[in-house]
Amino acid sequence: MGRELIKEIWASVRRNKLRTALTGFSVAWGIFMLIFLLGAGNGLINAQMRSSDRYLANSMMVFGGYTSKAYQGLGRGRGISLREQDMTTTDSVFGHVAGSVAAVYDKGGVTLVAGANYMTGQTLSGVYPADRDINKRNVVEGRFINDIDMRERRKVAVVSEDQARELWPHGGSPIGKSVMADGLVWRVVGVYRGDGMMQATSVYCPHSTVCAIYSTDSRVGNIEFTFGGLETEADNNAFEADYRAKLNLNHRAAPSDENAVWLWNRFMDNIQMAKGIGILRTALWTVGLLTLLSGIVGVSNIMLITVKERTREFGIRKAIGARPSAILRLVVTESVAITALFGYI
To answer: How many degrees, rounded to 5, is the angle at CA 79 between CA 75 and CA 81?
Structure first.
């Protein structure tokens, strides 16, 4: 009976090549669109998750901005540069929330030179030892900046793998070698791996050393710190408002001025991203299943036409003793076979 059923299905397919092709195309297209949408959507989600995994979720970056409100006789549009007083405020006034407090001072447009090799457009970044944990620096050789480097203001540097390959193309470890940056000689003590999303152009050096060379008015660059105890959006919003108000007062800016000091709360970013990913997943599955449903409707319509075309044939089959279940099995098996074949393709 199985062989006879296969023969009948094959004969029906050969008699109706166009109908079979249309049925198969609707199935294949629906499944292809489902796979394509889920693949593209999951790729986007994975990229976002990988991007957020480059730093601690419970960390915050603070940037100086420009005042947008007049305050105490001072006009709008004043530039705000974060200073040591702001780090002290973060550590002392908000010590119950803030954990490791650090800063990043960047000097861009630096040329690195090692022998006859050089790289332009690099950045000299003065950082604290805590920066390694806050931003998850992946040191693959040597070490990162430590407390002794900071205290003694050593001219040591941690270069990226990209920079090491360009400056020392013949291989070998760059640890202990010298590199000239902005006319100053630095000793390489470590090599870090970039995040893979862009070329790593930063050279990490002790914050105290970089500020001693380039910062003449106690500017510290951008502040970064870890925090704890802020579990909800309401807690985070309240802390941000209070923290911004205190820092604004350090610079004679209106406490409510949100443009004077910019806050990048990575915890809130993760909350928003989680919501966005949930919405994106729901949308992907909804669109994908609707696309698949359209293919199912297409198959159903074509099989309905098939049954109507073969009404006389089915009548003859029943007249000579065929059971309704046998006819139903013939139609269903044919549709399943076509769906399975083109769906697999």
So the answer is: 135
